[in-house]
């Protein structure tokens, strides 16, 4: 079964527009886990535009109360990232090649250029007991290089799929994701997915790639929660995942 990891970055984004701590990232995490989410994702950036260091540490402590829940910390490993892994020892570290000026994560690793640089980082994270996933575009030449880094999984960057789905043209891009996922799977890598997945496009994606291990969803899920409430929204995403299993 595909696992659902709830990304709480957008809760922190809203909180950071005031100084009173509302809404609470920790409470949102609690609600998501109580609703059955399999894990929580955060992406602490150097500019602290959403998740702050204290959030990472408080969420890690809370997740300890949920033995089956996983903690996934995303980030660029070359920008003040490893200190979080060293202090928290998350279940999974998702390495993302975004620069500090990036509006959001918008492309995967170029392993021809960065693969050798990533290998010692992956080794260090393994020494901490963390699973390592690489944020990747669905490009076969790049996917084929991923095993050389020692990573355990790849996370397919799905914004192009989501954009195509919204335009009714997902059939033009979905085959590239299917082939990339199969290539990674055949190479012994787990396959995750994330970025702009939602209740509409998620079932189609998972039906085409049923062996996806985890989807990390934040923006759409938090947006849906404004209408449905966070508990109900998480339940609906879990249902979407379950019906495509």
Provide a short characterization of the protein structure:
With 245 residues, the protein is α/β, with parallel strands linked by helices. The protein contains eleven helices and eight strands. It has a single domain, classed as Alpha-Beta Barrel (TIM Barrel), CATH 3.20.20.70.
Number of helices: 11
CATH superfamily: Aldolase class I
The average pLDDT score comes to 95
Any idea what the radius of gyration is? Answer: 17 Å
Strand % is: 15-25%
Query: What is the top-level CATH class?
Result: Alpha Beta
Largest beta-sheet characterization: 8 strands, parallel, barrel
Helix content: 40-55%
Per CATH, the architecture is Alpha-Beta Barrel
User: Would you tell me which CATH topology applies?
Assistant: TIM Barrel
- Low-confidence segments, given as residue ranges, are none
Distance between the termini: 5 Å
Provide the succession of SSEs: EHHEHEHEHEHEHHEHEHH
Structural class: alpha/beta
**Largest beta sheet: what is the strand line-up?**
1-2-3-4-5-6-7-8
Total E-strand runs:
8
Q: Please tell me the total number of domains.
A: 1
Shape, principal axes of CA atoms: globular
Tell me what you see in this structure.
It is a single chain. The chain is α/β, with parallel strands linked by helices. It has one domain: Aldolase class I (TIM Barrel, Alpha-Beta Barrel). Helices cover 44% and strands 16% of the residues. The chain is built from 11 helices and 8 strands. It has an 8-stranded parallel β-barrel with strand order 1-2-3-4-5-6-7-8, surrounded by 6 helices. α5 links the parallel β4 and β5. The longest helix has 17 residues. The termini are close together. The relative contact order is 0.15. The mean pLDDT is 95.
């Amino acid at each position: 079964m595909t696992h659902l990891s709830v990304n709480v970055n957008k809760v922190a984004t809203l909180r950071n527009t005031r100084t009173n701590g509302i809404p609470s990232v920790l409470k949102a995490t609690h609600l998501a886990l109580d609703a059955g989410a399999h894990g929580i994702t955060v992406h602490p950036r150097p500019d602290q535009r959403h998740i702050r260091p204290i959030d990472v540490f408080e969420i890690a402590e809370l997740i300890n109360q949920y033995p089956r829940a996983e903690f996934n910390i995303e980030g660029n490993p070359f920008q003040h990232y490893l200190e979080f892994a060293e202090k928290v020892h998350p279940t999974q570290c998702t390495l993302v090649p975004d620069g500090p000026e990036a509006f959001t994560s918008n492309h995967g690793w170029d392993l021809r250029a960065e693969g050798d640089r990533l290998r010692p980082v992956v080794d260090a994270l393994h020494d901490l007991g963390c699973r390592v996933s690489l944020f990747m575009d669905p490009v076969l030449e790049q996917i084929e290089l991923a095993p050389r880094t020692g990573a355990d999984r790849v996370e397919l960057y799905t914004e192009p799929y989501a954009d195509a789905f919204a335009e009714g043209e997902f059939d033009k891009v979905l085959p590239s994701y299917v082939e990339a996922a199969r290539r990674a799977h055949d190479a012994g890598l787990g396959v995750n997915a994330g970025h702009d997945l939602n209740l509409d496009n998620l079932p189609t994606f998972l039906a085409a790639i049923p062996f996806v291990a985890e989807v990390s969803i934040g923006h759409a899920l938090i947006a849906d929660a404004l209408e449905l409430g966070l508990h109900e929204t998480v339940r609906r995403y879990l249902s979407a995942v379950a019906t495509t299993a």
